[in-house]
Amino acid sequence: MVEVTLWGSLAATAGGNSKVEIEAKDIRELFRKLAEQYPGLEPLIDKGIAVAIDGTIYRDTWSKKLPEGAEIFLLPRLAGG
């Protein structure tokens, strides 16, 4: 079980929950379970979400393991220039 902080619009899409606990071993499983639990997150996940684990941002490494007790933040991807 990991505790995940949903930042910005992600929290609003998850029913106002800024922190959720999910049983997941890696980022891919985390996204799948979040989409099942909060269907409104699925379009945002599909667009791209950055995952910060203990201060390191992972963008396309979906097999990255989620260590127990890690600080995990999900952030919507920023666009623009």
Automatic annotation (TrEMBL):
Ranges in a coiled coil: none
Gene3D superfamilies: 3.10.20.30
Name of a matching Pfam family: ThiS
CDD domains: Ubl_MoaD_like
Domain of life, per lineage: Bacteria
Protein name listed in UniProt: MoaD/ThiS family protein
Organism, scientific name: Mesorhizobium ciceri
